[in-house]
């Protein structure tokens, strides 16, 4: 995974693709068609980026499957415009299983450009990745990948994190991320830390805190470098992310 994509991963509110064990019941009522959540990213006193997540008010069909259509957008701004980022993702997520059936992404990061589509075949545990070819002006198959069962992309993972009833977990309990991103699968353990009250935009919010254990990499400063706070209410929105990186700490907060 490229360094700038790891940072953008945080900018997009740590959309972690979770494959929880069966003991974690999912609360489907937290998905609200028509909902938009906005975030800002700050590095010290500087605002360096923004992101949004929107659930379309309509239900779409992928084949015969009813799906939510979810759009994610992230960009740099302020001084960070020197490092140009304008990225967007779209995912069609099964309303019954929260599995991804189709996704796409448009990446514009400096001089780097990528337009990609992925079709997920859950019956055969395959993911077909297509990339846009400027010469032929069409999407062409790059590769067909084997995937684990019940695979989810980063957007469906964001939904699952919100849907786990964290109040049923004990401090120190661990669940596992099992996802597919940038043509590869991976697993990361996430530790539930319990309840914590934080202040965001002069508001005091009671939150659940989780701590993904990061693999060794060139961006995050240690395995406990990322903390995530989700609201202790029916919505269970991600309210804040704090990431300690070798270039300093980045804080991402819900803006409204």
Describe this protein's structure.
There is one protein chain. By secondary structure, this protein is mostly beta strands. It has one domain. Helix content is 7%, strand content 54%. The protein has two helices and 14 strands; from the N terminus they run αββββββββαββββββ. A 14-stranded antiparallel sheet has the order 8-7-6-5-4-3-2-1-14-13-12-11-10-9, with helices on one face. The chain is globular, with a radius of gyration of 18 Å. It starts with a helix and ends with a strand.
Secondary-structure blueprint:
Elements: H1 3-11, E1 36-43, E2 46-62, E3 65-76, E4 86-94, E5 100-109, E6 112-121, E7 126-133, E8 138-146, H2 154-163, E9 174-181, E10 184-200, E11 203-212, E12 226-231, E13 238-245, E14 248-254
Antiparallel strand pairs: 1-2, 1-14, 2-3, 3-4, 4-5, 5-6, 6-7, 7-8, 9-10, 10-11, 11-12, 12-13, 13-14
Give a concise summary.
With 256 residues, the chain is mainly beta. Helices cover 7% and strands 54% of the residues. The model is unreliable at 1-22 (pLDDT under 50).
Rg, please? 18 Å
Helical fraction equals: under 10%
Main beta-sheet strand count, sense and barrel state: 14 strands, antiparallel
Head-to-tail CA distance between termini? 30 Å
> What count of helical segments does DSSP give?
2
Order of helices and strands: HEEEEEEEEHEEEEEE
Strand order of the largest sheet: 8-7-6-5-4-3-2-1-14-13-12-11-10-9
Give unreliable regions as ranges: 1-22
Strand content of the residues, in percent?
over 45%
The total of beta strands comes to 14
List keywords for this structure.
256 residues; mainly beta; 7% helix; globular; disordered N terminus
